[in-house]
Amino acid sequence: MKIVLVNVPHPAIGSRIPKEQLPPFGLLCIGGPLIDDGHEVELIDAELGPIELTDLTTTIISRKPEAVLFGHSGSSSGHPIIAQVSAAVAQALPNVAIIYGGVHPTYFWREILAQEPHVRAIVRGEGEETARRLMRAIDLDHSLSDIDGIAFIRDGKPVATSAATVIIDLDAYRVGWALIDHARYSYWGGKRAVVIQFSRGCPHLCNYCGQRGFWTRWRHRDPVRLAKEIARLHRDHAVEVFNFADENPSACRKPWRALLEALIEEDISVTLVGSTRADDIVRDADILHLYKKAGFERFLMGMENTDAATLKLIRKGGAIASDREAIRLLRQHGILSMATWVAGFDDQTDSDLLRGLRQLISYDADQIQALYVTPHRWTPYYRLAQNRLVVQQDLTKWDYKHQVLGMSRMSPVRLFAWVKLIEAAAQLRPRALMRWIWHPDPKIRHAIRWYYRMGRRVWIHEIAAFIFLDHARADGRTVFDHLGAAHDHEEEASSAARSPKPHLIGATTHGTVGAP
Prior knowledge:
This protein has 20 helices and 16 strands. By secondary structure, the chain is α/β, with parallel strands linked by helices. Helix 2 (25-36) crosses helix 7.
């Protein structure tokens, strides 16, 4: 079959302002197995440019595909754009098979199939094997009912098949790197870059996060094979920066250490950035020198909030003492720390936010990323927030950088002012500025200065957009009114509800058709 994979352009500030793009890793994960099955596969990445929607539609149509597969790392915020483009393509090519996958369609398959009849099928959960089977069935005109992990229209009604079996061997499906021109993708200040993935899932139960529900169990790739793949991309394609898509790659110390040692064995000079938990950094205090030697330059740690009551509410499971110690240990080993901090919880007050600012400054993280709590339906937090008023009706702005939920004690204008103040105060304090002026490690110095350049542009743009375009206001509707009820099964595994093994420990923000 002639298959086109489409990564639609996204209006998120993070996509537009830095003028640097990472490849849509999830679509590449789908593309590799489809190529191996003999299909003619092409990727159209409309984030590059970006391509205007009318031009994107024209480009897709001009390829005369038999199937068009849509997915986007923006998840819910990317859905309205995918809906618009896919409808236009289906109108021009009524016989084309429109396939849609990712986190949002996995949990909203009923609504999408009911409202967008042009969608032939939805891939639910991780999609490498499911997409292969689906394309084979469509190519041979076989029934879709026998394919696990999809949803489609049958007898005029949306139906879902049984959940697909979890992928145990993540190395069995290759990434379709041949689908991209590496020279067009950069990160970290103009350095050639890609997204990579060591593991999927997370063993923790934070109720604002959907990782455990989507992937269900933590699994990892073979450490040596992944290290060799990173080395090959560096040597053959001059890729310098590898951004790990994992939420918690270091969850299990033994395979994580094996990856670090395998990367060191490859003897390559690369920049690795990723996310982890502060607890894991503290746990690995004795091997942090391996982190640095392997190439890690920054870790994002989801601290989410500095208030103990809020941490308990969201079931974070971490400790403030661990957060402080992790930042100290990373700095001791020449690795940057980025702390995420979430605002917008219902009963936050001025005093809460002031206390949060003081604690963030005392943490002394190198970089701060302030986000807004967002009630996605696939997270347990949704049930806690479903009766709160929505102040941002535009789903494309449900991107963690716009306030979505109204607060009982604070207006959107006041919260926005606090968030901008916290960002500025944290990044412009004397200690932070001294590191910007000078750092003994030239690679870290480059990273700090790049982040300040990018952050300044984003910060100014966000203020201008809030004043002139995005001013949040309630229309009387709640989260439930916008998204509807969470179905009981949505708190359980969507992609890995069935597994050939009862437990697997030690065995990934990425554009998807049901992939990371």
